Amino acid sequence: MSEIKRIGIITSGGDAPGMNAAIRAVTRSAVTEGLEVYAFYRGFAGILDKEFRKFSFSDVGGIMERGGTILRTARVPEFKLPEIRSKAAQNLKELGIDVLVIIGGEGSLTGGKLLSEEHGIPVIGIPGSIDNDISFTDMCIGVDTCLNTCVEAMQKLKDTASSHERAFVVEVMGRGSGYIALASGIAVGAEAVIIPENPVDFKAIAERIWEERQRGKINSIIVVAEGAASAYTVSRHLENRIGFETRITILGHVQRGGAPSAFDRLLAARMGHEAVKAILEKDFGVMTSLSRSNMARVPIEKVLSEKKELDMDLLKLSKILS
Amino acid sequence: MSEIKRIGIITSGGDAPGMNAAIRAVTRSAVTEGLEVYAFYRGFAGILDKEFRKFSFSDVGGIMERGGTILRTARVPEFKLPEIRSKAAQNLKELGIDVLVIIGGEGSLTGGKLLSEEHGIPVIGIPGSIDNDISFTDMCIGVDTCLNTCVEAMQKLKDTASSHERAFVVEVMGRGSGYIALASGIAVGAEAVIIPENPVDFKAIAERIWEERQRGKINSIIVVAEGAASAYTVSRHLENRIGFETRITILGHVQRGGAPSAFDRLLAARMGHEAVKAILEKDFGVMTSLSRSNMARVPIEKVLSEKKELDMDLLKLSKILS
Amino acid sequence: MSEIKRIGIITSGGDAPGMNAAIRAVTRSAVTEGLEVYAFYRGFAGILDKEFRKFSFSDVGGIMERGGTILRTARVPEFKLPEIRSKAAQNLKELGIDVLVIIGGEGSLTGGKLLSEEHGIPVIGIPGSIDNDISFTDMCIGVDTCLNTCVEAMQKLKDTASSHERAFVVEVMGRGSGYIALASGIAVGAEAVIIPENPVDFKAIAERIWEERQRGKINSIIVVAEGAASAYTVSRHLENRIGFETRITILGHVQRGGAPSAFDRLLAARMGHEAVKAILEKDFGVMTSLSRSNMARVPIEKVLSEKKELDMDLLKLSKILS
Amino acid sequence: MSEIKRIGIITSGGDAPGMNAAIRAVTRSAVTEGLEVYAFYRGFAGILDKEFRKFSFSDVGGIMERGGTILRTARVPEFKLPEIRSKAAQNLKELGIDVLVIIGGEGSLTGGKLLSEEHGIPVIGIPGSIDNDISFTDMCIGVDTCLNTCVEAMQKLKDTASSHERAFVVEVMGRGSGYIALASGIAVGAEAVIIPENPVDFKAIAERIWEERQRGKINSIIVVAEGAASAYTVSRHLENRIGFETRITILGHVQRGGAPSAFDRLLAARMGHEAVKAILEKDFGVMTSLSRSNMARVPIEKVLSEKKELDMDLLKLSKILS
User: Fold this and answer.
1) In what order do the strands lie in the sheet with A294-299?
2) Looking at residue C92, what is its pLDDT?
């Protein structure tokens, strides 16, 4: 392969705080190395529609602190069709894109892997997802900010929960993963955490809440991952058993927004820079990874071959500490 | 009436951030003046159950910054019965309470007014309610913090809304009042605000969202006051009309928690102190009030006689500015 | 005077959070009414240099939540010279500016008053200043956000102060006014507040800190307004008297930044809209004002004729409650 | 050694947000396992003075979210004297403390190591320090919260910096380490970061600021680690060279306070629990460690034998990205 001159960049799948910081880092590192940066809008959709802009150093000024992604994002289900991917590859080639940087989660990395395998498009992945469900990296961009948002909201609930004799049910995101629910539940001392990785036992939860009331604890918070149940379902089940009112909070997309935390900004800056280093070394098909505080790279194929397991010790911990 | 020696204090109704700061200010001001402070738990319920503690200066240390109320609160529907109020008055007399300070909203003030009229219990009211529905005061304790919580959450939604092509529906509190919805909607530039004071026109809202999409605006936020409709109802109505997905956020009791804002702390400190000044001057039956940045007092009867009107100019403003 | 077609707008003096929200409200209200908006950069300097941009409805999108001012600001000392003001007036006339909206503090309003008196330029003022030193309005844009910033920082200090046996000195802004120091001092229960309006008595402060230590209170915070003394001076004086270490925090311009609070956004929205209403009614030479939760207008001349007095009851309150 | 029945716990050295969450986790995990917990106040000083309290499960309720440490902390320089350590060891033995859990930084771990070596007191370390200067763990408790505090403050500075033509100098903590300065500098895109690990070149910094002004960038932020220079020194040097005003912010102990971030709460919970696991396994003389998202243990001796090196790639990154 000849010299790399022009890179493409997309954010894809669910947005995550820190994606803008990653866009900035990729762009500035690339421009500093003399590369051209073509930024496509709405993920793979922008490649299909040839909706893009050339980014200079200053085009990414003032975006690091903003949640969401200035490139927007979209889920593009039709990307599962080979002919659609073929079209995308053709567009990238026509535009002279030598390598595509993909910031996103598992689905986005899978799209990249297929583009690469089927059409020889070199890709680099950067893990951005609030769900923390990508393996072979200590953290994904966005998880830390999302957890802070959840914990701040739940901490406010605790204030008011202590003033009443009620139980509160909070529904958080995470798709198939219970990580956000579990980590935020531990961080606020929730009475119970309901996650997809573990069968829910409403009887046990109701008993626990009752016992804690006897012990004098009055602020009961139950965290439920969207992948396990809805807040309404949990609320109905519990009210029937505990005999007093529950109240519901559904944070929804609030969890995807907000200025990224220091951790996510730093992680995004480092990963964006690492992606450009990989490009210069022509080390393609890899995802940037945080490993023991250092930057590393893992073949995307390896990342996709293994499901990130939830550390079930955390579930035990959540029960002991609350 | 002889000299005042002992005051009672309760927080009642829905809790509001800043109630603790008010408890602290009443206690410290009273103790400084040589008065005794009996703090009753769970509002009028604690008077009925004689569940109280004598508070010293240091008992209220470190509480100002905490949301909720350390005295807890409860709605006591049976307080509508004369015989229950009679029991409460008797308890207060037995305990030698010379005057009762009530921190709460309209219902709580009504309870106090009746105690006073029927049994000659002197009362002082301090307006604490996130709903901002108490008349004759520029602000109630808790409104400012609640608005900040709503605005922060909605601002995060805007980040992510700008990344997607979706509309977001946020349900906020306010009971019969649309103030929180309207004020927070203006503060984040929401596309539409649905409040109980104004009939909802789903067709007009859907058209507006469509027009704005045409104009290129992509982050649509619709705020709905719980008193007007539920987020679900609004979501269903809009999806049918606009033809794309909506997402829901229900903040719930998160709005009642959180460290109080500077404004609420200062307001609570001033009102708590003013309540004690009123006690020393034997100016009973009044509610402390913020009027043009100054402390004032208004007869509770006058407060209860007039419904606080929502400034409908704000509704116009919300339409012009977004 | 003929019909109003074109308005100018500047932010001037020290920046304050919420100025952007005011710019947005003026622009959108004016454009909605068919007026043209010329936004000048760096306050009066931009008028002198004819550095401006015509603002459309969408030019002020996404700015409400940002601290500072997108129009920048500058102090322009030479505006005290009549010939410089004459030049500014000439530029405004050449550009066909029918009325100038000035968002700023006392100095900026004075500049506007002179432009009006000397050259017949109609002006409207909007009070924006973190110092809360403008009379005839219950609040200025920016004060609320600034107080929240101060209080959050001081609250963090209290955490750590409780862990050590030290006293902490925090220097806050306010120019000639002690309002920020006093209001934030009350809101965190500071042991002492040193303000320009009241002579400092280091001996009394040191004695108080000593007494509180005896009583067991270990987290001493002393707030000092920049107009009264520097943190270093206070620190040196106290260390000599109390015999243990003090630590210093100087918040500096951190106090001017940050996303505006809900209160400041709403205030700015209302004032910006009110300014345009005044323009349409040709009610010139007035400042928009918050009065008992309502919008009002006050002649700028009246505003400038009276110094805003600090409510000295607050000083007493700060002593009683801590 | 016989069965473990009673553990001691201290927080020592500089306080860090999350220490309370660690105290809670150690206590609750230990009590759950049937152990007694003796909590000593003010670090080693409390052992010397036998100032302690027995902690039950509920004694550590409601502390996780609070900054600082409820056990207080102190630097005890005399602990360098063998006879003082001897006295501490004797007290621990008299009180029947079977193992001592030390939450703190390098100095505290050194104290623990000596107690162990000289007097056979089993110890377990938990790394708590905002400076991130402890080796063999990916993160210390407190670093994440401290970084968020710094980044939030600096972000506010950027707002106002964009409104003026000034440069801002921010002094942050870190003792001998430049980590906080560097990480927060990257996270806000600071123009320059001055750290003890790298000689400062004021000429180069001044030139850079000048160049960026030419390029149109107007918000210059210079971060300086306390271990490298003071904000005043930096300010004076720069003003002489750049010819315009600088403004100073000294965050001071604000950096040590604040509710701990989700990350720090989770880390503290896990490390506290791991410490108790180590105790039950009689795996003494180790420090709990975060390694690739998992809990691990490292001999304290090994931790102390190696200085944590600052990743100098971060310095390069800070220059490329701003």
Assistant:
1) A52-55, A36-40, A6-11, A99-104, A123-127, A286-291, A294-299
2) 98
- Number of CB pairs < 8 Å for A and B? 120
Nearest CA in chain D to A27: D321
- What confidence tier does A1 reach under pLDDT thresholds 50, 70, 90? low
Which H, E and C letters describe chain D, residue by residue?
CCCCCEEEEEECCCCCCCHHHHHHHHHHHHHHCCCEEEEECCCHHHHHCCCEEEECHHHHCCCCCCCCCCCCCCCCHHHHCHHHHHHHHHHHHHCCCCEEEEEECHHHHHHHHHHHHHHCCCEEEEEECCCCCCCCCCCCECHHHHHHHHHHHHHHHHHHHCCCCCEEEEEECCCCCCHHHHHHHHHHCCCEEECCCCCCCHHHHHHHHHHHHHHCCCCEEEEEECCCCCHHHHHHHHHHHHCCCEEEEECHHHHHCCCCCHHHHHHHHHHHHHHHHHHHCCCCCEEEEEECCEEEEEEHHHHHHCCCCCCCHHHHHHHHHC
Residues 284-303 in B contacting C (C-alpha not used; CB under 8 Å): 291-295
Inter-chain residue contact B184 with C262, CB threshold 8 Å: yes
Chains sharing 3 or more CB pairs under 8 A with chain A:
B, D
C131 flagged as catalytic: yes
Contact C183, C223 (CB under 8 A): no
Binding residues of D for substrate: 129-131, 166, 173-175, 226, 247, 253-256
pLDDT value of residue B283 = 98
Interface contact D159-C250, CB threshold 8 A? no
To the question of whether residue A191 is assigned a binding role by annotation, the answer is yes
| A177/A131 Cα distance (integer angstroms) | 6
What confidence category does residue A211 fall into, taking pLDDT thresholds of 50, 70 and 90?
A: confident
pLDDT tens for residues C159-205?
Answer: 888 888 788 999 999 999 999 999 999 999 999 999 999 999 999 99
The pLDDT of residue A164 is: 80
Contact check, Cβ <8 Å, A189/D64: yes
- Average pLDDT of C138-147? 98
CA distances from C315 to A116, B179, C34, C153, D104 (A): 70, 33, 48, 21, 40
- Is residue C267 classed as helix, strand or coil in its secondary structure? helix
Domains of chain A are 6-142+260-305 (3.40.50.450), 143-257 (3.40.50.460)
The Cα–Cα gap between B27 and B53 comes to 12
Tell me, yes or no, if D155 comes closer than 8 A to chain A by beta carbon.
yes
Give the distance from residue A103's alpha carbon to the nearest chain B alpha carbon, in angstroms.
Answer: 14
Beta-carbon count within 10 A of C248 CB: 17
Compute φ and ψ for D277, nearest 5 degrees.
-60, -40
Residue B265 marked in a binding site: no
Per the CB < 8 Å rule, is A156 touching B149? Answer: yes
Q: Are A112 and A19 in contact (CB under 8 A)?
A: no
pLDDT single digits (tens) B115-135? 999 999 999 999 999 999 999
Residue of B nearest to C61 (CA): B322
Length of chain B: 322
Cβ distance of A256 and B160 shorter than 8 Å: yes
- Shortest alpha-carbon distance between residue A65 and chain B (Å): 11
**Residues paired with residue A99 on neighbouring β-strands, in sequence order:** A7
Q: Over the stretch B40-56, which tens digit does the pLDDT of each residue have? A: 999 999 999 999 999 99
> What subunits touch chain C, counting only 3 or more CB pairs under 8 A?
B, D
Is C156's CB within 8 Å of D149's CB?
A: yes
Q: Which residue of C has its CA nearest to B313?
A: C270
Q: Which residues in chain A touch residue D292, judged by CB atoms under 8 angstroms apart?
A: 138, 291-292
A224 part of contact set with chain D, CB < 8 Å: no
What residue has token string 């307004």? Answer: C225
